[in-house]
Amino acid sequence: MYSFDIEQPKTIADAVAALAGDEEAMALGGGQTLIPTLKARLAAPSRLISLTAIPEMHGICMDDDGRVCIGASTTHAEVAEGVRASYPALSALAGHIGDPAVRNRGTLGGSIANNDPSACYPAAALGSGATIITNARAIAADDFFTGLFETCLEEGEIITELRFSVPEAASYQKFAQPASRFALVGVFLARFSDGVRVAVTGASEGGVYRWSDAEAALNEDFSAAALEGIAASPQGMIGDIHASPEYRAHLVGVMTRRAVAAAS
Amino acid sequence: MAAVTMVVNGNSVSAEAEGRTLLVEFLRETLHLTGTHVGCDTSQCGACVVHVSGKAVKACTMFAQEAEGAEVATIEGMAEPDGSLSRLQQAFQDHHGLQCGFCTPGMIMSAAALLRENPKPDEAEIRAYLEGNICRCTGYHNIIRAIMAASGQELPQLASQ
Ligand SMILES: Cc1cc2nc3c(=O)[nH]c(=O)nc-3n(C[C@H](O)[C@H](O)[C@H](O)COP(=O)(O)OP(=O)(O)OC[C@H]3O[C@@H](n4cnc5c(N)ncnc54)[C@H](O)[C@@H]3O)c2cc1C
Ligand code: FES
Ligand code: FES
Question: What is the pLDDT of residue B161?
């Protein structure tokens, strides 16, 4: 690793000021992605501004609209425990990210900000139609994820909280890549009173996306049979040593049908 | 450089650490506690697992300065006060839960965290919890048996045998 200093501010305002005052500074969440990146010398920040010691970025509550609100520095393990009753599909997703040690450090905000094309949380945020709250604004998940490792976050902007509307039924189906434990393909399906959302991770070269054909079919008839004859196209799907684009496209269908069955 | 103070295995320690100093480097190179191993240094293998504030973490994927003020437990603190092996460590020996021993400090620390959360885990729960601990020698069966024995359970035929 190149050399850098670490700062551990106690408030969002101090963290934002520290990042604004230094173009070379970077936010540090749980470090479960950033530290391996630093070791590989793929980033050379002057300073890391840790977001994990900020009390106002931790914790889970329910707002007046019945949304589950989660501080961005809440760890995957804390989410898995904390939303078990209020949002079981999200709890199950968080409880299967990586392994216990990763879940004890990795944070919701770090995962969403990183937008790894194989990460789990982006699918939950997009599939739930969550709202991403930053120090500056509120962003709909539909507008937030803009491409591979790309989001609409501005320089120095930090995610402070996510708000999830809780669907009537939901399921996350992950086909784990056995070495990395990320999703080879993952599908987060959520059925709300006003419609079904299907978010796919791990598959597309453009990162997480909504499978609109499946949503339309499921809005007509919420059953696995409704998906018969609807296939995801391998066009634009990731192909690597783990799986070809065709195989990933096939898995998108399989995982979606499993999610429908689990949420029925 | 900054002064870092933490409680390691019950002892308060204070030393200088750079921003980029990993917790595992601080433990091994500054405190000379070399029981915590570095297998991969890429967050995959779990040989470096220690407890920070009671939670299992990969010490190669956390900075020393982030452990400021925390309670840290390492394999060196696992034996009984008289130096004899703890029940969990003894079970690893009795059931051949190790061969070369390189993964063992991380295995013991992960297993100890599991047993604190779930005192009588079944085979599937043990395997799931150890997902981030890689062993190149034992094939895992005897590690599972050791953890079942340490938690006072019968040793059934493992599902995978
Ligand atoms: C062995 C292993 C297995 C894993 N398996 C999975 C898996 O199955 N599924 C999965 O989804 N993920 C997996 N991960 C990734 C893990 O979930 C990470 O915790 C997560 O991707 C990043 O979160 P973090 O808090 O560690 O962020 P960091 O690594 O600290 O930061 C990641 C990036 O986000 C930025 N950042 C961090 N917090 C914020 C914030 N609040 N606002 C703005 N920017 C921020 C940082 O500057 C950095 O660029 C795995 C990781 C490992 C090591
Ligand atoms: S050395 Fe830390 S996970 Fe391998
Ligand atoms: S005993 Fe050799 S790696 Fe596990």
Answer: 61
Interface contact A31-B129, CB threshold 8 A: no
B2-77: CATH topology is Ubiquitin-like (UB roll) (3.10.20)
Cβ A194 vs Cβ A188: under 8 Å: no
- Asked if residue A120 has its Cβ within 6 Å of ligand 1, the reply is yes
Q: Which atom of ligand 2 is nearest to B132's Cα? A: 3
B87-150 has CATH 1.10.150.120 classification: yes
Q: What is the pLDDT of residues A140-150, one digit of tens each?
A: 999 999 999 99
Q: Count of A–B CB contacts within 8 Å?
A: 74
> What is the per-residue pLDDT for B154?
85
Which tens digit of pLDDT belongs to each residue from A226-242?
A: 999 999 999 999 999 99
CATH of domain A1-49: 3.30.43.10
Nearest to A238 by CA among A213, A211, A210, A201: A201
* Nearest one of A232, A200, A233, A220 to A127, comparing CA atoms: A200
Interface mutation vs chain B, best among A33, A46, A105, most B CBs within 10 Å = A105
Residue-level pLDDT at A60: 98
Q: ipTM of this predicted complex?
A: 0.96
Q: Nearest CA to A228 among A254, A200, A259, A195?
A: A254
Sign of CA dihedral A246, A247, A252, A256: positive
What's the maximum distance between 2 C-alpha atoms anywhere in chain A? 57
What pTM was estimated for this model as a whole?
0.97
Q: Which CATH number fits domain A169-263: 3.30.390.50, 3.40.50.300, 1.20.58.340, 3.90.1280.20?
A: 3.30.390.50
Residues of chain B scoring pLDDT < 50: none
Please choose from B137, B142, B143, B144 the residue to mutate so as to test ligand 3's pocket, defined by most ligand atoms within 8 A of CB. Answer: B137
Q: What integer best gives the mean pLDDT of chain A?
A: 97
- Across the interface, of B41, B62, B110, the residue whose CB is closest to A100 is B110
